[in-house]
Write a structure and sequence with these properties.
Length: 341
């Protein structure tokens, strides 16, 4: 008699990459990088992100990059999600004090709503879901550059901090770590573009590997700083529940709002992933300037939201990757691929 191998229900979001994300968080909790190891992990994370942009620059044709820049409606939609919808929800969370959130946690939650969108994970998930990667690159980059100026101004207005939060060094860092590798990839595309196109699995490994490295580095920093011991378990659970609602709301607003505005499927994917995320890499240095000694507690909501968005969006990206098979024929496909803007 043959034995049937038991299988989990197909509706369960069980995926090797999700397990890898969870394992990375557990590893950082048990063995956080500190001292020299933290410097090495931080340098490796920065290098991985730069290499990711180099590969995307080498894979994408110049025509595709220019076409991405032309999607001004898409970029305005992402900016509206990041710097209008998110802050409004953050301001609404003041009604949760003091019954659900402490004033400090609510300030951190509001700060989370003011930081720019993340770049590398938005691009990676857009690529996995077969969305508009050039538009995701441009939208994420525009959001990060705008955040250098907009986030401190919004923080000064809503958090009562009148200090500055942007500098030429921050802008230079974005240029060196993100834009310069992308331009270098574009310049070298004629020699290595064909090789990378034939080996798409290389990009997939870099996408996933870079996110895992960022997760480990960020979570290690939180463990070393000891910010997890500054709130009670009950408050932490309440914060997680509020952030889950916040993320679900922005995922729905960015997806269905973009659909209502007439964007095609690939553009909606880019809008959803770029418009529903927040950047830990940008938020941490900004918080150190805006909050000073209280920065560790202020970024706790951002760190938790960062881990949550990665895990949830990984599931969504994997499921969205199967959608093109359903849209490959008929009038629906022609509508999805029609240019917008």
């Amino acid at each position: 008699m043959s034995r049937r191998t038991p299988r989990l229900p197909s509706w369960l979001p069980v995926d090797p990459y999700i397990m890898a994300l969870i394992g990375t968080v557990v590893l950082a909790a048990l063995l956080p990088a500190s001292g020299t190891a933290a410097d090495v992990a931080g340098g490796a994370s920065t290098g991985a992100v730069a290499f990711l942009f180099f590969l995307y620059g080498a894979r994408l044709s110049t025509a595709e990059a220019v076409e991405g820049l032309k999607h001004w409606r898409l970029h305005l939609t992402v900016l509206a999600c990041t710097f209008v919808a998110f802050p409004l929800l953050g301001l609404a969370s003041r009604g949760l004090v003091p019954y659900v959130l402490t004033p400090q946690l609510q300030s951190g939650l509001l700060f989370l709503c003011l930081v720019p969108s993340t770049i590398q994970s938005s691009i990676a998930f857009t690529s996995i879901a077969r969305g508009n990667v050039p538009a995701a690159i441009c939208a994420g980059s525009f959001s990060s550059i705008a955040g250098i100026f907009v986030t401190p101004l919004l923080a000064a207005a809503f958090l009562g901090n009148s200090g500055g939060g942007f500098s030429a060094d921050a802008l230079l860092k974005i240029g060196v770590q993100l834009l310069l590798p992308f331009v270098a990839g574009q310049l070298l595309r004629r020699w290595i573009g064909g090789f990378l196109t034939r080996h798409k699995k290389i990009l997939g490994l870099v996408d996933r590997g870079s996110i895992l490295l960022v997760v480990y580095t960020a979570f290690s920093e939180g463990m070393v700083a000891g910010i997890w011991h500054q709130v009670t378990p009950a408050r932490l659970g309440a914060l997680l529940a509020v952030e889950a609602v916040l993320l679900a709301t922005m995922l729905a607003v960015s997806w269905y709002g973009a659909k209502r505005l007439g964007f095609g499927r690939e553009d909606r994917i880019a809008i959803q992933f770029a418009g529903s995320k927040k950047s830990l890499a940008s938020g941490l240095p900004m918080a150190s300037v805006l909050f000073g000694a209280q920065a560790s507690l202020a970024v706790l909501p951002l760190m938790l939201f960062h881990q949550m968005q990665l895990m949830v969006c990984a599931v969504i990206a994997k499921r969205r990757a199967r959608d093109p098979l359903e849209d490959a024929s008929g009038s629906a496909a022609s509508r999805e691929t029609a240019p917008v803007g």
